TrEMBL record:
Annotated NCBIfam families: L-threonylcarbamoyladenylate synthase
Gene3D superfamilies xref list: DHBP synthase
Designated name of the protein: Threonylcarbamoyl-AMP synthase
Taxonomy, superkingdom: Bacteria
InterPro entries: DHBP_synth_RibB-like_a/b_dom, Sua5-like_dom, SUA5_domain
Naturally occurring in which organism (per UniProt): Streptomyces xanthochromogenes
Signal peptide per UniProt: none
Stretches assigned to the YrdC-like domain: 14-200
PROSITE patterns linked to this entry: YRDC
Amino acid sequence: MAKYFDVHPDNPQRRTISNVADSIRSGALVAYPTDSCYALGCQLGSRDGINRIRSIRDLDDRHHFTLVCENFAQLGQFVQIDNDVFRAIKAATPGSYTFILPATREVPRQLLHPKKKTVGVRIPDHAVVQALLAELGEPLLSSTLLLPDEAEPMTQGWEIKERLDHVVDAVLDSGDCGTEPTTVIDFSGGEAEIVRRGAGDTSRFE
């Protein structure tokens, strides 16, 4: 059964966040809220976590996993980024965007798009995730919590606990979360390409 953590959306309890971070370091797969919708997350190098996310979401090997980062300094360790792209992304973060960029050698091979050698990165604007990332000290390997054949993500932590009780290890609930996933912008070719229109405003990239 999944552990259930009720956390304050603006001032998450430090002890709770510490317990969840310890669980992630020990291999746990968690469902957690973001500034767009709920997501699944595990430790960066967890092959088991990746496989479990693929199984829950029914994903193929072309799916872009996302590295959810605390800040721009951390993001820069995992992707290659030139000055123009840097400025464009910097102006849009933190926020409800995922950016696809060429990966550095710091990114585990199993996370990369098999042909493009790219990975998704984002910096969320959500107090609970920021507290968890600060406690972890590294990015969270993540994917939108959107189940196969369902049009929208689940919005309630208790509902996620009921539905995924035997396939995730923990659920963080900080209240109602949005139903729109992030806006996805592909910068791997040097120019902004809008891959998915979601919670983030696309006008700055058009």
